[in-house]
Amino acid sequence: MQRIWPHLLLCLAEATAMVLAARGLLHYFQLESYQFRGYFKTVSRQWRKAWLPGLILGIGFAVCCVPVILLGKGSYPPPAFIMLAAVQALLGFLLYRQAVKTPQKKKFVMTARMKRLYAVLALVCAGAVGLNIWIAVRRCGLAMEDPSGAWEACLWYIRPSLFLPLLTALAGLIAWPIERLIFRLYFRDAEKKLLENPRLIRIGITGSYGKTSTKFILAEILGQKYNVLATPASFNTPMGVTRIIRERLSPSHQVFIGEMGARHVGEIKELSHLVHPQIGILTAVGPQHLDTFKTVERIEKTKYELIDALPQDGLAVFLHDGGIVSKLYEKTEKPKMLAGRENADAWATDISVSPSGSHFTLHLLGWEPFPCETVLLGRHNIGNILAACCVAKHLGLNREQIKRGIQQLKPVEHRLQLLKTAGGVTVIDDAFNTNPTSSKEALAVLSSFPGRRVIVTPGMVELGPEEEKFNEEFGRAMAECVDVAVLVGKKHTAPIRAGLEATGFPTEHIHTAAGLDEAIRIVNGILRPGDVVMYENDLPDHYSES
Known about the structure:
Blueprint: H1 5-21, H2 23-31, H3 36-45, H4 47-72, H5 78-101, H6 112-140, H7 147-162, H8 164-195, E1 201-206, H9 211-222, E2 228-230, H10 238-248, E3 255-259, H11 267-275, E4 279-282, H12 290-293, H13 296-303, H14 305-309, E5 315-319, H15 324-331, E6 336-339, E7 346-354, E8 357-364, E9 370-374, H16 379-394, H17 399-407, E10 417-420, E11 426-430, H18 436-447, E12 453-457, H19 467-479, E13 484-488, H20 494-502, E14 510-513, H21 516-526, E15 532-536
Parallel strand pairs: 1-3, 1-4, 2-3, 4-5, 5-6, 11-15, 12-13, 12-15, 13-14
Antiparallel strand pairs: 7-8, 8-9, 10-11
C-alpha cells in the first residue's frame, strides 16, 4: 500500500486536471447542442484551442518529471509524487480559469445536463488515467528503480491528456442514453401539461428565417385579446420548448406559441409531437443550415413536417414568396391562408418604409382596408406582420385590436434593432444571424438611411459547399449600398472581400479584423457624427478566428 498510494494520488490529480482543462471543450459541446457531428467539426475548425489544453498538461507533467527522474536515480520518495500531483492540479486549474475568463458571446451555462456530463467526464478521465498508470506499473514496476522505466512510465502518465477532445466526446457518448431517457420523461410531462387544457390554442411557427420575429409579432397582436405564452428568445429545440412548457405554462394561458427550429430532417416532426399544433405558420424555406441539411429539398421536407402534423380541421398559414412556400401552399389540402400576395388572405398596399419604421394599408380578405404603422424596420417585417394578422383574424380579433397590436410592436433584440448613440451615430443591430435572404433585407434597410454607411460582418455560416458563393454574392450586394466594410475574420470573409473588389469597391474602405473586439476598435476609429453602422451577424465562439 505504501508503494501504490503515490500512483493513486497521481491518477486523481491527473484526472482532476483533465476535467478542469476540458472547460472549453464542454462549452463547444454545449454550443453545438450536444451534437457529435457539430462538436467534431468545431474541434477540427478550432483545433489549436481544442488540443492545446491537453498538450499543456502533458508537457507540464513531462517537464516536472525531468528533475525528479534525473535526481531520483531510481529512488522516488512520496514528496516527489506529491509535487507532480500538485503541479498537474495547478495546471488544470489555471487552464480552467483561462477558459472562464475568455470573453464569450454565448455564455457557458452550468445546466443540470452539463453537471451530469461533467460527472461522466470525471469517470472517463479517471478510467483513462488509471488504465495508463496500471500499464506503466505493470511494465516498469511500482518502485520504477530503473530510470529508463521511469521515462517510459512518464510517457504512459501523460498519454490520456493528449486525447482530451476525444475523451470529452466519449463522455458525451456514454451520457447520451441517460440524457435521452431524462429528456423523454420531461417531454411526456410537458406534452401532458399542454394537453391538460382542452381550450388552449396551440400554434407552431417554423421557417428557414423569420420565425422568431413572426413569433413575437403574433404574441403581441394576440395579446390584445388573449393571455399568450410564447417561447422566449430563440428557444426552438425540443428540450428548450419542453423546458418552457414545464416551467412557465399555467392554466390561465389561452394561447401557446412554439417556435420550431431544426438542423436535421425529423426535428420539426418531433416538436410537433410535443406541441400538437392546431395552427401552423410557415414563414420561409431557403438555404439555411445547409451544412447539416445538405439540400434545400431536405429543408423543404423538414419545414413541411409542421403542416403535416396539423389536424384536418386546423389552419396552415403561408407567407407568399413566389417560390417554395407558395408551392407548398398550393399543394396543401387542409384549411389554409396565404399572406403577402395581393387579393390573398392578407396583403399590404401604400407601403412606406423609412429609418423610423413603416406605414402601410392592411388588407384582410372580407374586411375594409385600414392604415397601420410600426417602428419595425424593413419590408420583410411587413410580411411577418401579415402572416400574424391571418392568425389574428382567424382567432376573432377585430380591426382595432389588430391595429393596436401592430402599433405596439417592439424590435426584437439583435434583429434590425435601431440604437441611438450619444455621438450622433446610428447603430443597427442585426447581429443574431444572417442568411442569403435576410442579408438582402438588411442591406435594403441600411441603404434607406442617409449619411455614410458602415457595415461590420463576419458573413454567413452553415451553408455547406455553397457558403463561399453566397458570401461572395453578399460582398457584391454590399458594394452597392455601403461606404465602408469592416470584415471580421480574415479567412472566412475572403469571399466577401473578393465580391467587393470585383465590383471596384475601393480597397482602402475595406478593413479586416481578427475578431469582433478588433472590429469595434476599427469602427470607433473611423466613425463620425451622422454615420450609420450596421452589425450584420455575429459568429458564435466556436466559429471565431481570434
